[in-house]
Amino acid sequence: MEESQLLMTELPALTPSRVTLLHRSGHYYQLHQPHLAAIPTSQSQEILYNSSNAPHYTSGGATGLPAYAQGLSSRQQPQVTARGTVTPSTHISCLYPEILALIFSYLEVRDKGRAAQVCTAWRDAAYYRSVWRGVEAKLHLRKQAPALFASLVRRGVKRIQVLSLRRGLGDVLKGVPNLEALNLSGCYNITDAGLINAFCQEYNTLTELNLSLCKQVSDISLGRIVQYLKNLEHLELGGCCNITNGGLLCIAWNLKKLKRLDLRSCWQVSDLGIAHLAGVNREAAGGNLALEHLSLQDCQRLSDEALRHVSIGLTTLKSINLSFCVCITDSGLKHLAKMPSLRELNLRSCDNISDIGMAYLAEGGSRISSLDVSFCDKIGDQALVHISQGLFNLKLLSLSACQISDEGICKIAKTLHDLETLNIGQCSRLTDKGLYTIAESMKHLKCIDLYGCTRISTNGLERIMKLPELSTLNLGLWHVR
C-alpha cells in the first residue's frame, strides 16, 4: 500500500486464475482453483487425487484433519484409489467458514493476511471479527487512507499503534470510531495543538492511551484529554517531561476510572502531584481512588511524603514502581507496609533503601508477592533475615548486585518455600554452599538468575539444575533451559 504502510497485511480479493506455490518446513502448500490443500509429509499418509487433480490426503483411514474439524465438517467426498476402492476423504476446501476462521485466529498477524490472499473463500473467513479479536494494528500514516480504516472497522480491529504520523491524528479517530486503545508511543512530532485538534468530541469507547516519549506533550494536552476521554483506564505518560503537578490535578479531577498510570521520568512531578492523585487535599476532588498500578520510576523530586499520600488515598493500589527514586528512604517503606492490597514493589536502584527498610516491610505486615531491591548497595544479609521473618508471600525476589552472601541466602531458603523466581546475579560473595541450600529447600523455584556469580562452580549448578520445577537458569552469556 503506497498511501500508508500497514504491518497488518491487507486482505485483497484474488482472481480465480491466480496460482502460487508456498513452502514451509515440513509442509507443502499448493494453491489451486479455488482452494489450498495442506499436505503433511508424514510417511503414514497416502496422497490421493481425484479427476480435477485436487490433492487430498488420508492417514490410516482417517481424514488427516483435527478431530473437531472432522466433526463439524460433513462435506466429505468419496475418492477412488488406484486399486479401485472407494475411500472417504475430506479436503480442506470442505471446511465451513467458521472452522477456517477458528484456524486463522491462531495465526500471527502477517499470516492472517497472507491466508486471506489464497482465495475468496479464505478471504471471507479471514474477515471474521473473531480472527482479529485483541489484535493491535501497527500503522505508518503518511497520506489519507480511508480504505485502510474501513478495512480495520470491517475486521473489528479496535486497537491501533501509530508508528509514524505525518497527517493529523483526527483521521484515525474519525476512521475507526469505536477505537478502544490508541498507542502513540515514540511519535515525537505529536504536539499539544495536534492533540487538541484530534480530541474534539467525546470518545467513550477509548479506554487506553499511550503517549510515552511524546516529549512535546504538556499539561495543555492533558486538559483536553481528560475532558473528552473520561472513560480512560490506562494512561501512559512515560518520558513526557513537560507534565507537571497541574497536569496531575486535571487527571485527579476527571479520570475517575483510571486504573493504570505511568509517570516514568516525569521529572517535574513532586509530592504535591501525588497528593492530587491520592485525593488528600481539597483541590483534587477525591483523586483517582481506583488506581491499581502506578509507575513513578525516575521521578527524582519525590520523597517519603509522596508515599504517605499513597498509603492514605490509594488504598486499592496493587503495584508501585519506585525504581531510581533516589530520595525515597527507609522511612517511606513504613507507609507502604500498611497497604493491604499492595502486591508488587519495585525499589531497584533506590540508593537510600537499606536493611532497616526491609525490617519495616516485614514487621508492618506487608503482603507483597514481588520485591525488587536490585542494585541497592545498602541491602545485605540482615535484610534477608528480616525478609525471612515476615514476607512469607513472596514469589519473586530480585537481589542483583546486593551485598549478600551464603548466610543470607540460607535464611530465606528455609522460610520462602513458595518462591518461584530468584534473581541473585552479580552477587559475587555467593558460593556453592548457597546453591546447595537453595536446591534443598526451594522446591518450587522456576527461574534463577546467577549472572556474574563468579565463585560458583559446576557442582553447585548441577545441584540447582535438579530442582523439579526449574525452567530458566541465567548464567549470563549462556542461557540454559
UniProtKB/TrEMBL annotation:
UniProt GO cellular component terms: SCF ubiquitin ligase complex
Keyword Magnesium: no
GO biological process: SCF-dependent proteasomal ubiquitin-dependent protein catabolic process
Domain of life: Eukaryota
Residues annotated as domain F-box: 95-135
A Pfam match: F-box-like
Keywords: Ubl conjugation pathway
Protein name: F-box domain-containing protein
Organism of origin: Frieseomelitta varia
